[in-house]
Amino acid sequence: MAIDILRSPVSAVRFFNGAATRSRCCSSTFRFNQNAKHYKELEAAVDVVRRACRLCLNVKSSLFSTDEKVLEKNDQTPVTVADFGVQALISLELNKLFPSIPLVAEEDSAFLLSRNLADTVLNEVTDTLSSTCKPLTQDDVLEAIDRGGKDAFVFGSKPATYWVLNPIDGPHGFLKAGKALYVVGLALVVEGEIVVGVMGCPNWEEDLSEKSSTEIEEGWDSLGGSGTVWDHAVGIICVHEAGGKVTDWQGSDIDLAVGHVGRRIIFPYGGVLVTNSNLHDKILQIIDQTSRV
User: Fold this and answer.
1) In terms of residue numbers, what domain contains 200?
2) Which of 179, 200, 205, 253 is deepest in the core (most CB within 10 A)?
3) What is the pLDDT of residues 68-118, one digit of tens each?
4) Number of domains in the chain
């Protein structure tokens, strides 16, 4: 397994098969373990998430100058131009490098079109996209967004390889002034196993150990828990690579393929339990005893 956590502006914390190293590096250079099984995918994922973080910062810098960049979806959760821009950007970049690997992601273009913001997203993506042979069009952006939509690919019941993207996890954090945390999360699933994960944290300027407990709780409160695969995939590999454990309340691994057709919904029994590995069984016992009362 391989995971990279990017933080602003140019730091990286990386884990390879459980071994972590921290380094300061220039914005265009990251060191990778070329012996890692999915090295190429990790290298690409780090690059596209870094670009996505730049897009987020660009959008946020002008966010409060106009109301048109902040919308509300049918479930009353906020969504911004950055959500659509990140999904389009990452979809375009990954499709160039790995055209056979589908994308499972949160947004779709219909909502964007209904708000007449396609040109705004196009401009943001164009500013952060790597070199392209032809000028990017609005249709290119819309198609890229929908490449991650629920109708873009039919998986069937067999194990599959696919990317999972949460364009902005923690939208309330993104919308707050100051340095509230939010994440761009990208993971690669191969035959039911999360093998690569990259978290881009544009507002993460110091170690979490330096944060007060209130700030950390506020950060986690802003992260969703809707039962969708993009809300959990990157977090799961982060915890695993740090030596922790993630299961449902019965101790079973989170089944990413339970929604066989779309690979978009997870149904953990009771909820998702995240601990260090030492405490996990004890907490499962407490949950079991409590449920019998």
Assistant:
1) 2-224
2) 200
3) 566 666 655 678 899 999 999 999 999 999 999 999 999 999 888 887 889
4) 1
271: left (phi over 0), alpha (psi -120 to 50) or beta: left
User: What are the b/e assignments for 120-151, b being 16+ CB within 10 Å?
Assistant: bbbebbbebbeeeeeebeeebbbbbbbbbbee
Question: Strand pairing partners for 2?
Answer: 16, 196
Is residue 242 a part of any domain in this protein? no
**Residue 106 known to bind ligand:** yes
Length of the chain: 293
**CATH code, domain with 181:** 3.30.540.10
Q: From the centroid of its chain, how far is CA 144?
A: 16
A 10 A CB-CB count for 46 gives 22
Please give the structure tokens belonging to residue 183: 């994440």
On whether the CB atoms of residues 173 and 184 are closer than 8 A, the answer is: no
| 231 known ligand binder | no
Say what the pLDDT of residue 35 is.
77
By the 8 A CB rule, do 80 and 175 touch? Answer: yes
Q: Is 31 exposed, middle or buried, given 0-12, 13-18 or 19+ CB atoms closer than 10 A?
A: exposed
Residue 58 lies in a domain: yes
Predicted confidence at residue 268, as pLDDT, reads 85
Q: What is the pTM of this model?
A: 0.81
> Has residue 269 been placed in a domain?
no
Any binding-site annotation on 67?
no
